[in-house]
């Protein structure tokens, strides 16, 4: 019998065989939004670079072994995993810090599974989300409760959702449809199309709105009350919205306007000196804090660290705003270097540093390094990601999921599955 390591390496090699080989290649050029030549994105070339190999000389075999280790750490090992299966043929991703289950983690888990060709685990996660998180009636029908207990009980007196969960659900379901087809336990394409239709079917008359603000074309922080007119910069994923515009059966003209709106928001929200993003913002990128909120969401903190991952992904998938994105990532990653990669939280102008530079930041910033012209700084960020120990302990969930997705990106294994 073949060892697990060998099987994993073979399976990854087979997955990669359908794509162009990894490594340094000459890229065709295209015009970006400002008229400058940039490398064509992976959507056009089907070339997904393994930056560990490109910058550090790490072999594909070493990379595959590292990805197997990470999978086992978060999905298999009883002491360190965040993936738990239930008796009803479902599974959930457990937020070990807050001791609940979130659409954020569930949708991240599904994306990880479809990228690594783990269909049984994907189906179990989706089955749990549909069974316990989906609102099936009332004004919130079609949305997913943003957090539940591990027993599947929705938390909170009032229904609510977190917009990034729906975004990752939709995109991972599209990828599942293209990777595995639609004749198994789920018609994945139909599932994705239903969410896309449902989240744009609210008129606000009952206090619940569309997931995207119809005037700004931006994803809302929460589609209700005052929150409908604000956003979370890290919820803005232009690379995903490009795919929705291509694959959606409904609202196609609207979806075509959302990628550039998201790119503008990220550029506007990035501080012009430090590159730092706020956790929440107005539609013009101005940092925003809801009244009576428990912490200052105008700062670069918990959510904002994911913005670098969003920008880097859009840069290497599509390259449509390459000049702006290269400048944003240069400001941001040089700011962290000047801080000696020490702190985790800041005011967006760089003042009031706090916390310790985290595993999630190391991961997201390495994805942002796709957009860097400074190859020495890019190498430093990529080396930090490769060297970072896998997170353990009570707070391993959030940093761990961002870290794992970042490893997929930087290793060339986070792909547009067409």
Short description:
The protein has helices spanning 4-17, 42-45, 51-56, 60-75, 103-115, 119-133, 163-180, 188-198, 238-247, 252-269, 307-317, 322-338, 359-368, 375-387, 396-410, and strands spanning 29-31, 37-39, 83-85, 91-95, 100-102, 147-148, 230-231, 281-282. It has 418 residues and is mainly alpha-helical.
Write a structural description.
This protein has 418 residues and is mainly alpha-helical. 46% of the residues lie in helices and 6% in strands. The chain has helices spanning 4-17, 42-45, 51-56, 60-75, 103-115, 119-133, 163-180, 188-198, 238-247, 252-269, 307-317, 322-338, 359-368, 375-387, 396-410, and strands at 29-31, 37-39, 83-85, 91-95, 100-102, 147-148, 230-231, 281-282. The strands form three sheets. The protein has a four-stranded antiparallel beta sheet. Strands 1-2 form a two-stranded antiparallel sheet. The longest helix has 18 residues, at 163-180. The two termini are 33 Å apart. Mean pLDDT is 92; it is low at 1-38.
């Amino acid at each position: 019998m073949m060892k697990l390591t060998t099987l994993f390496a073979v399976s990854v090699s087979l997955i990669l065989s359908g794509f162009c080989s990894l490594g340094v290649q000459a890229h065709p050029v295209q015009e970006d939004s400002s008229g400058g030549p940039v490398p064509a994105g992976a959507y056009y070339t089907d070339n997904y670079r393994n930056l560990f190999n490109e910058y550090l000389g790490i072999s594909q075999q070493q990379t595959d072994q590292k990805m197997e280790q990470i999978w086992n750490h978060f999905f298999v090992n009883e002491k360190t995993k965040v993936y738990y299966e239930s008796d009803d043929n479902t599974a959930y991703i457990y937020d070990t810090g807050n001791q609940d289950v979130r659409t954020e983690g569930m949708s991240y888990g599904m994306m990880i599974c479809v990228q690594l060709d783990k269909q049984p685990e994907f189906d179990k996660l989706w089955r749990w989300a549909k069974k316990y998180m989906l609102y099936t009636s009332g004004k919130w029908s079609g949305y997913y409760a943003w957090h539940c207990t591990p027993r599947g009980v929705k938390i909170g007196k009032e229904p609510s959702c977190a917009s990034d969960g729906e975004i990752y659900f939709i995109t991972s379901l599209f990828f599942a449809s293209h990777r595995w087809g639609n004749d198994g336990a789920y018609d994945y394409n139909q599932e994705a199309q239903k969410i896309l239709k449902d989240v744009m079917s609210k008129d606000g008359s009952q206090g619940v709105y569309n997931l995207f603000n119809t005037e700004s074309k931006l994803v809302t922080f929460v589609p209700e009350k005052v929150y409908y007119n604000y956003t979370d910069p890290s919820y803005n994923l232009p690379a995903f919205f490009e795919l929705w515009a291509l694959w959606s059966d409904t609202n196609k003209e609207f979806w075509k306007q959302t990628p550039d709106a998201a790119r503008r928001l990220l550029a506007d929200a990035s501080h012009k000196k430090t590159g730092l993003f706020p956790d929440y913002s107005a539609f013009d990128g101005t940092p925003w804090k809801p009244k009576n909120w428990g912490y200052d969401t105008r700062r670069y903190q918990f959510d904002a660290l994911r913005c670098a991952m969003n920008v880097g992904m859009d840069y290497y998938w599509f390259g449509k705003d390459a000049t702006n994105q290269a400048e944003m990532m240069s400001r941001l990653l040089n700011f962290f270097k000047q801080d000696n990669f020490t702190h985790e939280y800041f005011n967006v102008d760089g003042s009031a540093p706090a916390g310790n530079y985290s595993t999630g930041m190391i991961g997201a910033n390495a994805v942002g390094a796709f957009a860097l012209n400074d190859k020495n700084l890019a190498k430093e960020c990529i080396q930090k990601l490769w060297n970072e120990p896998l997170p353990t302990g009570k707070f391993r969930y959030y940093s761990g999921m961002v870290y794992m997705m970042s490893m997929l990106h930087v290793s060339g294994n986070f792909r547009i599955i067409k």
